[in-house]
């Protein structure tokens, strides 16, 4: 299986603790030159020790060309990525990374931006706030975490030029300051766009509340840090995929993902997160009905059933015909 291609070699210029269980990596070009530009909401694929590839949002000012800054939460149920960052990566190490990509961009036509960060989801949201402040755009930011100790970059935010546009919400604090999604998302204005990033439960709650309050899908923007478990589930069945270009039929056993079955058959497609988060492996479906398990496609895109993420999604029909 082919992961996203690494295009840059960077050096870890600084590794720092930003909050409880969160560390940051400041990455600079290994040759000392400038790094390619990026836009707010961008992420990079980082090739970590042990052959692991993970995606991390860039959380420094997009105007900077001398560094990329990422922050990583140590996950108790880590599949290896966060443990590698926290335990194996050291200052001075060189890492391979991809060019920045953006699937979580600011809506240029929005009249107002409402930024909503949960925990480690502050990374792309902070980058957006930095950019919007420079543009003198109308925005407000809400940052929620379980406790103040788990709030990365809180000091940077409080000392920023846009500090008065940010509200902090901690779960272990007084009730009046806790995040009230229903109140915050009530009465959506047509020109306002909502951006949400954080743990899946936080994001599911925020997006469900927004939809219930009448926000249109075109107003909603999100990025998940972790998606579906790509492993087998109880009740999963076998099915087949057929390659449209050759007519070749490849069986997908109940205990394998589509990408694994394809790879075993010598058919490689580009993958990265393998959790249905990034969209790298997105594949057109010509016939059949996918069983969507991703966090990348919108509900409308999933309902169209003309594309799916083979890294985690499966099939409701006996066969899927893929544009491969």
Automatic annotation (TrEMBL):
Keyword annotations of the record: 2Fe-2S, Flavoprotein, FMN, Iron, Iron-sulfur, Metal-binding, Oxidoreductase
Keyword Ribosomal protein attached: no
Classification lineage: Bacteria, Pseudomonadati, Pseudomonadota, Betaproteobacteria, Burkholderiales
Cofactor: FMN
Domain 2Fe-2S ferredoxin-type: 239-324
PROSITE patterns tied to this protein: 2FE2S_FER_1, 2FE2S_FER_2, FAD_FR
Name used for this protein in its record: Oxidoreductase
Annotated PANTHER family: CARNITINE MONOOXYGENASE REDUCTASE SUBUNIT, NADH OXIDOREDUCTASE HCR
UniProt xrefs under SUPFAM superfamilies: 2Fe-2S ferredoxin-like (SSF54292), Ferredoxin reductase-like, C-terminal NADP-linked domain (SSF52343), Riboflavin synthase domain-like (SSF63380)
UniProt domain FAD-binding FR-type: residue ranges: 5-107
UniProt-recorded Gene Ontology molecular function terms: 2 iron, 2 sulfur cluster binding; metal ion binding; oxidoreductase activity
Species the sequence originates in: Paenacidovorax monticola
InterPro entries in the cross-refs: 2Fe-2S_ferredoxin-like_sf (IPR036010), 2Fe-2S_ferredoxin-type (IPR001041), 2Fe2S_fd_BS (IPR006058), Beta-grasp_dom_sf (IPR012675), DmmA-like_N (IPR054582), FAD-bd_FR_type (IPR017927), FNR_nucleotide-bd (IPR039261), MRET (IPR050415)
Repeat found in the keyword field: no
């Amino acid at each position: 299986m082919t992961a996203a291609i690494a295009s840059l070699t960077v050096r870890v210029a600084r590794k720092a603790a930003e909050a409880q269980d969160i560390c940051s990596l400041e990455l600079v070009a290994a040759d000392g030159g400038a790094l390619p530009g990026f836009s707010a909401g961008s992420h990079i694929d980082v090739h970590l020790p042990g052959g692991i590839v993970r995606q991390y949002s860039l959380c420094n000012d997009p105007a900077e060309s001398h560094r990329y800054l990422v922050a990583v939460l140590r996950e108790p149920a880590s599949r290896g990525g966060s443990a590698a960052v926290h335990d194996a990566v050291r200052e001075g190490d060189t890492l391979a990374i991809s060019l920045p990509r953006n699937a979580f961009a600011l809506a240029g036509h929005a009249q107002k931006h409402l930024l909503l960060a949960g925990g480690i989801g502050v990374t792309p949201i902070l980058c957006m706030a930095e950019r919007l402040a420079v543009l003198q755009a109308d925005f407000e930011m809400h940052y929620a975490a379980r406790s103040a100790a788990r709030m990365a970059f809180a000091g940077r935010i409080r000392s920023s030029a846009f500090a008065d546009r940010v509200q902090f919400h901690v779960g272990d604090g007084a009730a009046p300051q806790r995040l009230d999604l229903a109140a915050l998302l009530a009465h959506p204005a047509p020109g306002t766009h909502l951006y949400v990033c954080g743990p899946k439960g936080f994001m599911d709650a925020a997006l469900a509340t927004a939809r219930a309050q009448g926000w249109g899908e075109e107003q909603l923007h999100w990025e998940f840090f972790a998606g579906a478990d790509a492993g087998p589930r109880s009740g999963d069945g076998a099915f087949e995929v057929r390659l449209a270009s050759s007519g070749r039929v490849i069986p997908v056993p109940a205990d394998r993902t589509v990408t694994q079955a394809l790879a075993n058959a010598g058919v490689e497609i580009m993958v990265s997160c393998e959790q249905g988060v990034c969209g790298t492996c997105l594949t057109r479906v010509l016939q059949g009905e996918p069983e969507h398990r991703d966090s990348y496609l919108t509900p409308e895109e999933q309902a169209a059933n003309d594309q799916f993420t083979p890294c985690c999604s499966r099939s409701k029909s006996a066969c899927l015909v893929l544009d491969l």
